[in-house]
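@channel sequence for tomorrow's demo:
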Amino acid sequence: MQKKLTLTVSEEVYDGLKEAIPPRKISRFIEDLVRPHVVRKDLYEAYRAMAADSVREAEAEEWSDATCQDVHDEKG
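structure tokens (generated this afternoon):
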């Protein structure tokens, strides 16, 4: 079920939205931006999906190890 929400934004933001977002798509654009910050279930599911991606996890671990090694090698 959808609910109607009235927002107040500056004229500059309003003009930018009208210029950048296709007609009748601003509500969806704002919902997509806000959702990860207020609907935690989606966020946790996204983390689970990322963790289940073994290729992505291997790349992340490799990047993390390389970064830690770079920091260790720095002269302070």
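heads up for whoever presents: Helices lie at 11-20, 26-38, 40-52, 54-73.
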